Amino acid sequence: MFALLTEERVTTSVMSKSCVTQVSAYGYSLSEVDHVFISSGKDVRLPCNNALPGCKSTTWNYNRFSYSSAVELFAGGRKTTDTERHERLSLESDCSLNIKSVTKEDCGLYFCRQYVNDQQQGTDAAVYLHVLHVSSSEISAGLSLTLSCQLYSYSSSAGVSCGDWIRSERIDLFWVNQAGDKLTNSDSRYQISAPGHCIISLKTTILNEDEIREWRCGGNHRDQVQTSTTNTVKIS
Questions:
Q1: How distant, in Å, are the alpha carbons of 94, 156, 218 from that of 51?
Q2: CA-CA distance, 101 to 105, in Å (whole number)?
Q3: Start and end of every Ig-like domain (predicted)?
């Protein structure tokens, strides 16, 4: 009889940039876009790169889907009555937005805007928050284990092709073993499948000699590792 305990260890978030000039149909102008990657369950900080001193001019808005109305999270540096996320949100002294215990539903487009005397100052500072989430199946007969790793992003949740989105942003997902070797289907012990461009699954059989096994799912953006989640399986 085997008992398996799965533990999860997560790296800190990493930020990358896309410098663009864009006027959106949703009423905001973007001069620079940040991409922040985080694994679910962790805390994250979203930068406000256009902040004025004191944060009293700062407004944070959020779009979950491209077709949804923006939700105001902070206005005049003060938290608004945003729904169920209210207690998980806070501002730092530099006007960055903190989100505690990130969930996959927190992914989306966040934008920081400055108002002085009811007039907007400059362009919006936009941040795409991407959330990496790993789920595991029940251990089946023969100690077969399946781990699914999915990246939740603004466009992938908005009816836009996830494949088109991550190809344009050069985002890819991968699995590695505890030695840091990237896993492929060339190893008969592992089955790597990608039913969609924003999800990658690992199926393997736990062997009797596997006292401890680790597998890590990671996400790359423009050839740089942004975040990863390590799953440890212990047999006792």
A1: 7, 29, 31
A2: 11
A3: 38-113, 125-236
Residue 114: per-residue pLDDT:
93
Gap between the Cα atoms of 114 and 101, Å rounded: 27
The identity of residue 21, as a single letter, is T
Which pair of structure tokens corresponds to residue 133? Answer: 């989430």
Q: Are residues 226 and 14 in contact, defined by beta-carbon separation less than 8 angstroms?
A: yes
**Model confidence pLDDT, tens digit, residues 177-186:** 888 888 888 8
pTM of the model: 0.80
Q: What domains appear along the chain, each with residue ranges and CATH number?
A: 4-10+131-235 (2.60.40.10), 15-130 (2.60.40.10)
In the block, which residue shows the tokens 């990358």? 16
State how far the Cα of 112 lies from the Cα of 174, in Å rounded to an integer: 32
